[in-house]
Amino acid sequence: MNRTTLSLIAGTTALAAVTGFAALSAPDAPGTDTAAKAAAQLPVERTSLVCPAPSTSDLAETSYTSFTPVTKGTGSGGKAELRAAAEESADAAAEGEDEGTAKDDGKSGKDKSAQPVLTPKEPGKPVTGESSGGDAPALVGTADGRFAPGWTVQETTEVAAGTGRGLQGVNCMAPDTDFWFPGASTDADRTDYVHLTNPDDSAAVVDIELYGKDGALKSAVGEGITVGPHSSEPVLLSTLTDERQTNLTVHVNVRSGRVGAAVQALDDKIGGDWLAASADPSGSLVLPGIPKDATAVRLVAFTPADADADLKVRLASPSGLITPAGHETVHVKGGMTTAVDLGDVTRGEAGSLVLTPTDRSVPVVAALRVVRGKGDKQETAFIPAGRPVGTRATSADNSGKDSTLSLTAPRTAATVKVTASAGSEGGTPVSKTYTIKAGTTQDVEPPVPGGLKGTYALTVEPVSGGPVYGARTLAANEDGVPAFTVQTLPDDRGMVAVPEADEDLSVLQR
């Protein structure tokens, strides 16, 4: 997802104010004595996140965990807070009224508004919040200054019974304009919602497109959906089409404005979870962190291209890349959703699915539906194709015994540093370094803060080697049901490359 930084804009504006012109330095021509200067990596200065409304169940218990890693070069200022979307809207309206009033009568929106759900006090230490029941709203948050780089919020909900019972988790997402969700469904046993949350002061207009096994599904009501300012709209997929489809790909395209989007996939029999957006369409994909005790794994893939895609299917196991018997390749027809049941593909070992083109590269999106347990004690989670860890990835809401960190190096070996933060109620940070062999997946035992009290966050930072993909699994045993939820670990986009700018005073002499 795209996160906006004001670093380059602010720097260029300040320079222009002094000199009247800002010139970006170009690399020196070949043969010169001066080496080209690399772009500087600077912390982002502002981050926005939205969290979907967690559940409509009266039995829902939801926890929120906010964490910002300590980042060099951020200064000492800034703040972060997470508020209900409706309160954000009310505050904005009240502030507008106050600006047109000559005196303060003590009835401003700021005085009326409820307290933020979360207000972090310092980077490097998680802060938590809770809600109960089915009335918890969507949340909108902003972090700036030292709280902005890598700001991460985890929303985790436990539902004791009913449709979608089990553990549901989602990383609150940055607003964007384009999302792909392979793995959704309008089957009779499924109740799937697309949650659209608008953090901005103006309305967003959204189109929702559905693609099944035979191509696009007709839907007149999926076009031009208006999401009001600072509000959230849950859209039930079965209201967009009359067709019952077991495997769907949902495309959310924002015509104007921006939204955060996630699919809440709830099953009457085998629990449910949040389905996060797949990585952008690509010829090669990695789906990291399949639990080693998975009893059923289904791959759902889609290509938006006109051409078909032929993909080689391999499992990155602890010992290397292997080809699942009977599932060496998968053929994905252009504009159609393809599903392949891989069974218990991990066979008791950690694993990640690696998809690569057999011949020419065609962009694809993909996700896995993963089931743990047997009989009436089954639970479901989803793993979308992930983006690499990059510079740093951050995972909030971990505990000493219920968290599993899975790391994959699909092409070349890599060394990573994993840091456990201080606990939300106490503890000291601890770091540990791991080496992941080429083509393998390792379920590593993450470090635990010394004297841990409460929950803690993990940061993953590559030290050397090739690209690394990661996922974190939270697990809980609920009356014999192996409840779980999996979140991938993409780059937290706490840093941004800023080209070096030099003064060009010659413009003043013209």
Automatic annotation (TrEMBL):
The keyword Acyltransferase belongs to this UniProt entry's keyword annotation: no
Record has Signal as a keyword: yes
Signal sequence bounds: 1-22
InterPro entries assigned: DUF5719
Species this chain originates from: Streptomyces paradoxus
Keywords (A to Z) from UniProt: Signal
Ranges of compositional bias, category Basic and acidic residues: 100-113
Compositionally biased residues, Polar residues: 54-73
Name used for this protein in its record: Secreted protein
